[in-house]
Each structure stands twice: as C-alpha cells, then as structure tokens.
C-alpha cells in the first residue's frame, strides 16, 4: 500500500531525526518488564499503582516510572504480534471478535446502540480508527490545564505515535468537497483543532502499521516499572480511620487462572493509586470498591466506603450518522484522514474502501454489521439475528456495491448524557450504560445540520467522479428504496425527515466518556473527592469530548498528569527538606 520510495525516505529521515525514542519502521515488539500476572507474587509493594494499561494509563505509568516504582495492571494481553491490531486493513477484525479473549469487549447500551471497549494493553488506541488530532487551546484553558505543559505533552506523544497520512484520491475528493461547500479555510495538514477543513494526523504509519499508547511504554524506566498482563483488578482497598477520609492503600487483582494477588502502596503520604480503566471501567471499579451511590451499592451487597451519588453520572457518547456513497471508480482503503470542523458543532469525517481482511468485503470496515455498526435497523432492533440478516443480505450483493465510502458526521459535546450502573459484582462483566442520544434538541439540530453538509459534499463538483451520475441523492437517503447498495434502514415512512434519519441510523464513533467527571467525582487535579491517595485519569473524567476525536488528548493527559504528579512531589520533598 505504501510507495517504496517514500517509505524508504521516511525511514532514513526518521533515523536521523529521532534517535530515541524508536519510531516508524523500528517496531517495538516486547518489553523486558512485561509479565503474565500468573507470575506475580501474592503480595507486593509500589510507590504508584496504575489500574488499566490503556490510552491514558500507558503514558502515565511510563512517566511516573522515571522516578518511582510503578505497578501497571492491565486486564488484557499484549497487542504486539497481533495482525488484527497492527494492520490498518484489518480494522474491525478485533471489534468483530466477540470471544472472551478478544482485545475488544462488546457492549450494548440501554439505548440499543452496539458499542465496544478495549481489553488489551494500549486500550482503545489498539482498536480505533487511528485519527490523531489535538483539542483546542480553549478546551485546555477550560480544563484548567497549563497550555505550555499541554503542548509539551502532545509533542512527547507525537514523537512516537503520530504520522501524517498519505491522502489519496477519495479522501482528497472529500476534502475538496468540504472546501467547495464553504467549510473553510483550508488548514492543510495540522494536529490543531481549528475551524475549516484539514488533514489530521494518524497513528498508522506509511506501511499501514498501527502505533499505540503501548508504544509509549518505551519511555518507561525498565528497572522501576512492573507491567502485568491478564491482571483484572477486582477492588481498591481503603484504610479507614475515624475522623479522616478513607485512604486508598492497595488493590486486589486476579490472574488468568483466577488466583488472587494483592498489591499495596509503599507507606508514604505521596504514594497513590490511579485508576485509568476507561469510561466504563473506572466508574465501575470505583463502585465495586464502595465509592458510589449508597442505595445502588447496597443493592449489590457492596459495603459503602463513600456515598458518592455522582459516580457513573454524566455518561455521554457522541452520536455518529453516516451516508454510504457507492463509487463508479476504485477508491483507496482509508480510515479517517480529513475532517471538516464546521461552525455549528458538527464534525465531518470519512472512511473508504473495500475491506477484504476477513476474506469478504462485508467482514470488517468501519461500517460493517459484524463489528456492530448496524444502521440498517433502528437502535433496539439491532439483535444478533438482525446482524446475521444484514450480513447475509450484503453477501448477496455484487462486490462493486461496496466500492465507495462513508461520509459521516459526529456532533461536538454532546449535551445529552446518561448514567452507568452495575449489573453484577464481577468486574469482567459490562455495567449497564445509558447515553440518551439526541435527548437535547441542540444535539439533534447539530446532527441535521451535519447531515445536510454531508449531502452537499456528495453533490459537490469536487466529489462528482466518486458518485454515480444516475443515482440521485434522494436515493441514497431514501429509506424505502430497494437499491442494492442501500445500506440504510428500510423505513415505511416516506415523508422522511433528517431528524428521524438521525435517530434511526444513529451509531457510535466510540468517543464515549464521563462517569468520573471533573468537578463531580474528581477535582481539577483528578483526585477523587472524599477519599485520599486515589485519582482517576482517563476519558471518564471528561465533561465533553476533546477536539474532533479524543485519543490524542487522552494520551496527552496521561503524560501531562504524570509530569504534574512528579513535579508536585519533587516540590513537596524539597519543601520538607528546607523545613528540617
Ligand atoms: C473502535 C474505536 C474507534 C475509535 N476511533 C478513534 C479515532 O479514530 N480517533 C480518536 O481520537 N479516538 C478514537 N476512538 C476513541 C479513543 O480510542 C478512546 O476515547 C480512548 O482510547 C479512551 O482511552 P481511555 O484511556 O479512557 O480508555 P482505554 O483506552 O479503554 O483504557 C482502559 C484500559 O483499562 C483496562 N481495564 C479496564 N478495567 C480494568 C480492570 N478492572 N483491571 C485491569 N484493567 C482494566 C482496559 O482493558 C483498557 O486497556 C475510538 C475508539 C474505538 C473503540
Ligand atoms: C517477552 O519478554 C519476556 C521477558 O523477557 C519473555 O518471557 C516473553 O516470552 C517475551 N514474549 C514474546 C512474545 O517475545
Ligand atoms: C499465563 O500463565 C498461565 C500459567 O503459566 C497460563 O496458563 C496462561 O495461559 C497464561 N496466560 C496467558 C494469556 O499467557
Ligand atoms: C483476528 O480476528 C478474527 C476475526 O474476528 C478472529 O477470528 C481471530 O481469532 C483473530 N486473531 C487474533 C490473533 O486475535
Ligand atoms: C500550544 O500549541 C498551539 C498550536 O498547536 C498554539 O495555538 C498555542 O498557542 C500553544 N500554547 C502555548 C501556551 O504555547
Ligand atoms: C445480598 O445479600 C443477601 C443476604 O445475604 C442476599 O439474599 C441477596 O441475594 C444478595 N444480593 C446480591 C445482589 O448479591
Ligand atoms: C424512494 O423509493 C421508493 C421505492 O423505490 C420510490 O417509490 C420513491 O419515489 C422514492 N422516494 C424518493 C424521494 O426518491
Ligand atoms: C413520518 O415522518 C414524519 C416526519 O418526521 C412524522 O411527522 C410522522 O409522524 C411519521 N409517520 C409515521 C407513521 O411514523
Ligand atoms: C527524577 O529523578 C532524577 C534523578 O534520578 C532527578 O534529577 C529529577 O529531578 C527527578 N524528577 C522529579 C520530577 O522528581
């Protein structure tokens, strides 16, 4: 897929520019400090314990290990050597694997939209569509972050995982279409979040090889970090003394044989446990550890450490809606490369190409029913039978029907939000989660405006060679149509509104967040309110999703907070020494 010469040039250039850390063709494959949890002692002690080796947890643990002993506990396995994770063309292979050992754990929200969460070292960055783009400086200001340290942290991440994509014919047409219809200016290639049209970064290199948050562990101090795989944390342990706040001091985790292990903090007032288990995992683990709404914990026979009604509140998922545009001419395989940042709070992105990784073009891809993207039937009707039916219907189609791409819109925010609840006390099981897509009218309005923009792109001159001239737009959107390429819901209502289209075809772009929000569950230093020695650092702390896509900011936050924790501790130590 990559051109020989540009690849060669890039490798040569990168060896000059980036002596350390590793990059591009130098692939990390193993770490000396990575272990199967079965090999862990029954009891061990550390300065920091990080729960969840995901998108935030890896950069955080790597940073803390520069000066202190760190235990990083990840419930999944290693991403290295798994082609389902490392190859761009295999996108969706992991997402369609619903076995208990899959790096992706499927869940279905109470809204009825099929979704997925990571269960692998590197977290969501091992499953995602790779688009890499920063949050706006305004977002950083509102979060109370230091702008310079934020930029330094983004750069630290980008040195290892971010690349400029080689934009080919179909993505270029989407970009030209966006510019033609007025999503301007043209911002060229940029990581920055600025209004207009741009090409963003990607964590796939020019060979289509994925670089993930796990690669940031190459920054770790190998003699100070312990990384355990297949280590599922069941509970955070608290020490409760009369008159003071409960203090986190250890964790209980189980290995793949079900054996129990305990890890404790070294006795030092600055030692901490940090939860980076993601938007579903972090609120779930707090609740399992007795930090959550009292009634709810009692109903599950969990003894209450702290009555905290806001744990699990503020769960949001940015709704995604898309239109498939069949193409008369060949298109490249691409995930997200171009983005239109509109003035009305919709982001336009696109993905193209047949995907034969599974032997058939219907197997994977960003919009395959096998990965749970089933816009053909409304939410709540997306049963396993419906998935099987949709897959079968697609298999009957001519392969030419899959030549083309999806142009999607996702909305900023969103404003609508829901909540998370435990189903059982087993941390391996999904909690129940409700997102309430489009409950707020402004969210719906942004979807409608976004889809109108997508329609305009499809009808633009710049995009003309990638749509059939005899296929009117109405047909692409016509839910009653029987077109062979109609992948949209069959709907008996012919007076279709875009509002209805938004609701009926809503999918996830997997940017769900919340559950341990800043100002509600954690303070602006990500310390859990009402207890000591415990923070949450990951996407569960967001009040709304950063940038057009979150992963850059999640990784940045891991690094940023790692540096901040080290700096604060260094200052406190220096102050203590001056006093003595
Ligand atoms: C399919 C998909 C496509 C996406 N596309 C993009 C994109 O193109 N661009 C973009 O910017 N973003 C994208 N995203 C979103 C982005 O990847 C996520 O927002 C981000 O990875 C979340 O990071 P996190 O650290 O909050 O959680 P995660 O990365 O999920 O990390 C949580 C980690 O904790 C572990 N864990 C959970 N519970 C426990 C426990 N009890 N014990 C031990 N370990 C535990 C999990 O296994 C996981 O590794 C996508 C996401 C998905 C799933
Ligand atoms: C990774 O390294 C560890 C420790 O050196 C070793 O035990 C393990 O077999 C290696 N795994 C792979 C896949 O190379
Ligand atoms: C971890 O080690 C145990 C015991 O040696 C083994 O049974 C198990 O398969 C290993 N798990 C993985 C995922 O390597
Ligand atoms: C890759 O994905 C396919 C399809 O989901 C699955 O059958 C296979 O077991 C996966 N392979 C690995 C190494 O995870
Ligand atoms: C951080 O970088 C962005 C561009 O990516 C720039 O607009 C902003 O001014 C920088 N902030 C600081 C404080 O340097
Ligand atoms: C809680 O404990 C009670 C009494 O032991 C038991 O009857 C009930 O089933 C338990 N509930 C749950 C959800 O485990
Ligand atoms: C939608 O498709 C149906 C059936 O093919 C057709 O009768 C109807 O005219 C179409 N509506 C529009 C708006 O194209
Ligand atoms: C059809 O759609 C229109 C516009 O959204 C709506 O007003 C009407 O109630 C719908 N009719 C049915 C039968 O669903
Ligand atoms: C980390 O340790 C090094 C020496 O090992 C020291 O120079 C540095 O100041 C320390 N940094 C912090 C933030 O503690």
TrEMBL record:
> Sorted alphabetically, which PROSITE patterns does this protein's record hold?
GMC_OXRED_2 (PS00624)
Q: From what superkingdom does this record's organism come?
A: Eukaryota
Q: Which Pfam families match?
A: GMC_oxred_C (PF05199), GMC_oxred_N (PF00732)
What keyword terms does UniProt attach to this protein? Disulfide bond, FAD, Flavoprotein, Signal
InterPro entries per UniProt: FAD/NAD-bd_sf (IPR036188), GMC_Oxidoreductase-Related (IPR051871), GMC_OxRdtase (IPR012132), GMC_OxRdtase_N (IPR000172), GMC_OxRtase_C (IPR007867)
Cofactors? FAD
Regarding protein family, the annotation reads:
Belongs to the GMC oxidoreductase family.
User: Any idea what this protein is called?
Assistant: Glucose-methanol-choline oxidoreductase N-terminal domain-containing protein
**Species whose genome carries this gene:** Vigna angularis var. angularis
């Amino acid at each position: 897929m990559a051109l020989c010469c540009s690849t060669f040039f890039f490798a040569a250039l990168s060896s000059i520019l980036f002596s350390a850390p590793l990059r591009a063709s130098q692939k990390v494959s193993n770490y000396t400090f990575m272990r199967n949890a079965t090999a862990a002692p029954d009891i061990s002690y550390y300065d920091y314990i990080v729960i969840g080796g995901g998108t935030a947890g890896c950069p955080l643990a790597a940073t803390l290990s520069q000066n202190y002993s760190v235990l990083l506990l990840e419930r999944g396995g290693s991403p290295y050597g798994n082609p389902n994770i490392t190859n761009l063309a295999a996108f969706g292979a992991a997402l369609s694997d619903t076995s208990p050992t899959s790096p992706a754990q499927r869940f279905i929200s109470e809204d009825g939209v099929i979704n997925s969460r990571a269960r692998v070292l590197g977290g969501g960055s091992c499953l995602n569509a790779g688009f890499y783009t920063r949050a706006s400086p305004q977002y950083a200001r509102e979060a109370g972050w230091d702008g310079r340290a934020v930029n330094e942290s983004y750069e630290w991440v980008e040195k290892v995982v971010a690349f400029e994509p080689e934009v080919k014919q179909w993505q270029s047409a989407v970009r030209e279409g966006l510019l033609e219809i007025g999503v301007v200016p043209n911002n060229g290639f940029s990581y920055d979040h600025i209004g207009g049209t741009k090409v963003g970064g990607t964590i796939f290199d020019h060979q289509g090889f994925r670089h993930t948050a796990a690669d940031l562990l190459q920054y770790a101090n190998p003699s100070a970090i312990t990384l355990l795989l297949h280590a599922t944390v069941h509970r955070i342990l608290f020490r409760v003394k009369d008159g003071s706040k409960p203090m986190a001091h250890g964790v209980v985790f189980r290995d793949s044989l079900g054996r129990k292990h305990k890890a404790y903090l070294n006795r030092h007032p600055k030692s901490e446990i940090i939860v980076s288990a993601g938007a579903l995992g972090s609120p779930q683990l707090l609740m399992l550890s007795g930090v959550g709404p009292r009634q709810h914990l009692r109903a599950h026979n969990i003894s209450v450490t702290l009555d905290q009604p806001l744990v699990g509140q503020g769960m949001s998922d940015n709704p995604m809606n898309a239109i498939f545009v069949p193409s008369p001419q060949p298109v490249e395989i691409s995930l997200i490369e171009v983005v239109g940042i509109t003035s009305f709070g919709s982001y336009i992105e696109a993905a193209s190409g047949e995907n034969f990784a599974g032997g058939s073009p219907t197997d994977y891809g960003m919009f395959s029913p096998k990965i749970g993207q089933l816009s053909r039937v409304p939410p709540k009707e997306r049963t396993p039978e419906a998935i099987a039916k949709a897959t079968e219907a697609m298999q009957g189609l001519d392969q030419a029907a899959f030549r083309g791409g999806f142009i999607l819109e996702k909305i900023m925010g969103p404003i609508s939000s829901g909540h998370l609840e435990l189903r059982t006390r087993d941390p391996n099981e999904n909690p129940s989660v409700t997102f309430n897509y489009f409950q707020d009218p402004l969210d719906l309005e942004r979807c409608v405006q976004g889809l109108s923009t997508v329609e305009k792109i499809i009808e633009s001159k710049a995009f003309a060679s990638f749509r059939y001239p005899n296929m009117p737009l109405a047909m692409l959107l016509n839910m009653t149509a029987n077109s062979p390429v109609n992948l949209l819901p069959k709907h008996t209502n012919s007076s279709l509104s875009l509002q209805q289209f938004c609701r009926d075809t809503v999918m996830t772009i997997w940017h769900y967040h919340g559950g341990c929000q800043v100002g509600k569950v954690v303070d602006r230093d990500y310390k859990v309110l009402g207890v000591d020695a415990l923070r949450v650092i990951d996407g569960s702390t967001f009040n709304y999703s950063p940038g057009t896509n979150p992963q850059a900011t999640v990784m940045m936050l891991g690094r940023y907070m790692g540096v901040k924790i080290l700096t604060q501790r260094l200052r406190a130590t220096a102050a203590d020494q001056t006093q003595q």
